Amino acid sequence: MTTIAFVGLGHMGRPMAANLVSAGFTVRGFDLVPELCEAARATGVEIADSAANAASGADIVVTMLPAGKHVLAAYEGGDGPGLLAAARPGTLFLDCSTIAVDEARAAAELAVAAGHRPLDAPVSGGVVGAEKGTLAFMVGGETADFEAAMPALEAMGGRIVHCGGAGLGQAAKVCNNMILGISQIAVAEAFVLGERLGLSHQALFDVASNASGQCWALTTNCPVPGPVPASPANNDYEPGFAGALMAKDLGLAEQMIALTGVDAQLGLLAQRLYADFAAGEGAGKDFSGIINSIRAESTA
Ligand code: NAD
């Protein structure tokens, strides 16, 4: 029986851990928030009294934490032992958090130095994908380790892609979300321009969704109510994918653009626009709600 330590039982981690339980794994979880531990216990997760105790003796250690600093701190430990020291040598370390590529590579180096087998495995698909077990996984690390992690990944995900060596799962995630952030703004600007020109939302949608403007930001996450009934715009921009998370992910893109020197002007501009959006009420709204900022900033 494979035992999986699951550290970070928040919005994403709790349903992911529950799916591992449903697939027959023994799951030992831990979160700093006791209420979240209790909620996970109700889904069949055994609760450890520390992250290190969850990892001790486990075959796989999954982390689903807010940001890179949390992952590195959990790996290395502080007052008590970290996950790397607590786990037995040869343990698979599967970090599913969204963190910077250089942080993922640093985490992988630490794990290898401690005798473990690291994979960076960020996800897309949001809380709904986590609940349904249909997350897309983008994985970086050694092929043999990727294959060893496959049963656990399949219990939590639908589409699973091995992107290359350490950090390249995070690289795929940051590049995809940069496309997404930019294209959502492009679609929103086009709808506001269409409004000013007297074009109905439906007419623009009917043309662009069947023409070269077609993209996910238009056909699934349409930023105006009506043309795509399930899009967050029809529900006062309830997420969906919150503006704060898009701002975080584009902040990672900004870091990677600076690190590589790429002339990614639209990526940097999108980062600034989402940071402004998330500084206000956009933090908790779906990121397609940026259309309201565009309307508000447009001259009368
Ligand atoms: P969350 O804040 O709900 O959950 C993170 C959990 O980690 C919290 O419950 C927190 O208490 C816990 N935690 C922090 N430090 C810890 C430690 N040392 N030990 C144990 N627990 C600790 O965040 P989330 O929405 O579940 O997202 C997790 C990660 O997944 C983030 O990196 C996020 O960017 C990424 N992500 C989120 C979504 C989404 O839609 N929410 C989608 C894709 C990717």
From TrEMBL:
Q: Where is the 6-phosphogluconate dehydrogenase NADP-binding domain?
A: 3-164
Q: Does the keyword Cell membrane apply?
A: no
GO MF annotations in UniProt: 3-hydroxyisobutyrate dehydrogenase activity; NAD binding; NADP binding
Biological process terms in GO annotation: L-valine catabolic process
Q: Which reaction does it catalyse?
A: 3-hydroxy-2-methylpropanoate + NAD(+) = 2-methyl-3-oxopropanoate + NADH + H(+)
Pathway given for this chain reads: Amino-acid degradation; L-valine degradation
Concerning SUPFAM superfamilies, the annotation shows: 6-phosphogluconate dehydrogenase C-terminal domain-like, NAD(P)-binding Rossmann-fold domains
EC main class here is oxidoreductase
Report the residue ranges that make up the 3-hydroxyisobutyrate dehydrogenase-like NAD-binding domain in this protein: 167-292
Keywords carried by this UniProt record: Branched-chain amino acid catabolism, NAD, Oxidoreductase
Q: Which Pfam families match?
A: NAD_binding_11, NAD_binding_2
Task: Indicate yes or no for the key word Flavoprotein.
Answer: no
The record's annotation in Gene3D superfamilies points to: N-(1-d-carboxylethyl)-l-norvaline Dehydrogenase, domain 2, NAD(P)-binding Rossmann-like Domain
- Similarity comment: family membership: Belongs to the HIBADH-related family.
**What's the protein name?**
3-hydroxyisobutyrate dehydrogenase
Q: Which organism is it from?
A: Leucobacter komagatae
